[in-house]
Write a structure and sequence with these properties.
The protein is an alpha/beta fold. It folds into two domains: 65 residues; 178 residues, Rossmann fold. It is built from eight helices and twelve strands. The strands form two sheets. A seven-stranded mixed beta sheet has the order 3-2-1-4-5-12-11, with helices on both faces. Helix 3 crosses helix 4 and helix 6 packs across helix 8. The chain is globular and about 55 Å long.
């Protein structure tokens, strides 16, 4: 299939993040603990808060809360923001089950605002670059800067474009369906160089085993490090070129790195 045949709705992010999406990526829950450990190391924050008051963290585009819940289990005061009511409901149920305090807010990442400041803000797992108008992606960074206390840290985790281009293609995963049986999928990933955008479709081969819909679409811009750094600087962040990694275990950012993890700081004054 050629890239140009894929037509993804402009507002795909409103419909795609529902329970079917969580089931596709449920296995990612297993990596949340290690990822949070790496994030706290990069941000030079304690792995566990022993004293009150706890430090405040913002998880922007928190999804079903896999990172937010891990931060909360370590004693942090966590706010999770997402546009998907279904994702937030799932996060809330899991927080109640684990008896963890988690603030959850339904908001658009371009327009959110907090009445308090946070020490750390995270935007993880390529939850950035959704909007075709780059000024709207820039607005997200400005909102994050406003949410941070002076000297606060922002960690952005996105796909490393060079790695993505070498691994993109078609796969045939299967996941548990909402009724407990396997749901077969075809996952197709493409890159549109003229738009610098990644396109992903999940097509259910047996739609009756999906909970909500036959197809799930994802689309986002992929960036070079220099492009992201320029956007962060434009938003008002300080960015040290040394503060970048290719994974959550201290690995340097290279062409073969699966992730591009960047740390930026809000000026202290």
């Amino acid at each position: 299939m050629r890239n140009k045949r894929i037509i993804i709705p402009e507002d795909w992010y409103i419909e795609s993040f529902k329970s079917d999406f969580e089931r596709i990526y449920h296995h990612k829950n297993e990596t949340a603990k290690d990822e949070v450990t790496g994030i706290l190391e990069y941000a030079q924050l304690p792995q566990k808060i022993q004293k009150q008051p706890p430090l405040a963290i913002l998880d922007l585009c928190c999804g079903w809360g896999r990172h937010a819940l891990e931060f909360a289990s370590r004693g942090y005061d966590v706010t999770g923001i997402d546009l998907s009511e279904i994702m937030l409901e799932m996060a809330g149920r899991d927080a109640a089950k684990a008896r963890l305090r988690l603030r959850l807010m339904r908001a658009d990442m371009r327009k959110f605002s907090l009445t308090y400041k946070v020490r750390l803000a995270v935007n993880l797992w390529t939850s950035f670059g959704y909007f075709t108008d780059e000024s709207e992606n820039q607005a997200v960074l400005k909102n994050v800067l406003a949410a941070l206390e002076p000297g606060g840290v922002f960690i952005l985790d996105i796909d490393n474009i060079s790695y993505f281009l070498k691994t993109t293609g078609i796969t045939n995963p299967s996941i548990p369906a909402h009724n407990g049986t396997k749901a077969e999928l075809i996952k197709q990933e493409f890159y549109m160089p003229e738009r610098s955008r990644r396109l992903v479709t999940y097509r259910f081969l047996n739609p009756h085993k999906a909970a909500e819909r036959e197809n799930i679409y994802l689309e986002c811009r992929l960036y070079l490090y220099e492009d992201i750094r320029e956007m962060l600087l434009k938003a008002g962040f300080q960015v040290d070129p040394r503060d970048k990694w290719g994974d959550f275990h201290g690995g340097p950012l290279k062409e073969t790195s699966p992730r591009m993890i960047i740390l930026a700081r809000k000026p202290s004054s």
